[in-house]
Amino acid sequence: MGQYLSGVQSAFSDYHHDRKFRVQCTPDYRSYIHYSYCSWTDYANEMDMPLIFQCRDGGLISGIESFHDNHFEDRKFKFKCCHYKYMCTYDCFYTGWLNSFGAYYSYEVPHNHFVRGIVSLHNNVPEDRVFDFEVCSINFDCDHTSPTTTTSTTTTTTPRPTTARTTYDVFLLSMVHGDPQKSVPILGRRSRA
Fold it and tell me: Given a cut of 60, is residue 29 above it in pLDDT?
């Protein structure tokens, strides 16, 4: 039986210029569902640079690993993505920024939803990051042509409206994983000039 990321709490330390994370994973209660495969990514960001990550081919985040560098006062992140047989993601949305720089955040994924991606920006003044999660529902009743097909279908993600003021514009970019012919469009954010 697999597990999936179901919640994150994070507090910032001014003294350490770092965040402490508490990650919650939930066992998949559907014993008849099994992952077709899981794999760890390489580090998805460089120090002091944006993190724009999405599990490829409709996968779900089931693990996070990171390390802190005292010189940069920042973290690099890698992710474990898992895929189910006959899985389709749908009703995807971005949470909006879960925290402001230096602030605590706590996020629990809604029932029957899963984290597929994470966007994070670093700021050198507070030496901190803000986080925005991409959350999706999944369905196992996809229109697959044969019972042995394991291709996942992915819907486009749209940001939910937010009342919070932001200094970032939303943009669409292609994330390339190995083969440039198989780029994955993802929604990200960038600072306004």
Answer: no
